Amino acid sequence: MSKSQPVTPPEALPDAPRRWHNPLMVPLKAISARLRIGLGVAFFVLFVAVWALVTFSGMVSPTFLADPITMLQQGVSLFTEYNFSLDIGMTVMRVLAGFLLAALIGVPLGIMMGAYKMWEAFLEPFVSFCRYLPASAFVPLLILWAGIGEMQKILVIFIGSFFQIVLMVAVTVSSARRDLVEAAYTLGCSNRSIVRRVLIPGAAPGIAELLRLVLGWAWTYVIVAELIGSESGIGHMIVDSQALLNTGQIIFGIIVIGCIGLVSDYLFKVANRRLFAWSNL
User: Fold this and answer.
1) I need a labelling partner for 241 at 20 to 30 A (CA). Which of 6, 53, 174, 253 fits?
2) Structure letter (DSSP) for residue 6
3) Which domains does the chain have, with CATH numbers?
4) pLDDT tens-digit profile of 118-137?
5) What is the gyration radius of the CA atoms in the chain, in angstroms?
């Protein structure tokens, strides 16, 4: 029986063709944190540069798109003359109220659906149906049922978040490792203990991550809720600015929403990383 010969790598061969490759374009290869931040900042700089080019050069009329400097000036006037901080506070309150209400009801219901197939068969068709209904379609009905006060706006966010949370939590819980469940049964755990000690702890990191995603979606629903019958909030300011053709204030409001969303997303990530540090082991 002949011995196998060691394989010589192609790059070690003298006549092997050498192909240039970009080390940054290797699929799934991690990059340094400094490079990641630098690339992210670079895109924002490029975006603002293109924005400034098309506005300062007159390619786009100021009526349709304000330039960056005008946008900042009008943003400052929102805080100094129109008490925009109150609008921001009202919008944040509505988002948190609707999202927390959806999470408090949706997470337990999703756990029940994911753990017990009977409840999944009973509720999943209806939840899946409602998941595709746009929250904005409920605005006329909610105005009739709850008026144009705070409850109507909170319910829009609740409807937009609730069904997403229920279904995603159910899928996360039902994807639990079967070997852990069988091991728990072998150790004498009851059905209720399986849910409490195996399924919920195992699904907790995934549930926290999906809640972070749904919180981002909730910010899109609040603007829809504030567009009609609102006297405060970022959405209300955007509607007023649209009536005055003040694109600078509209853009500033959109940017504020994006900044608040980024901050909330970062805080959620930090909290998840500290609460479930063991999930990355």
Assistant:
1) 53
2) P
3) 68-276 (1.10.3720.10)
4) 999 999 999 999 989 888 88
5) 26
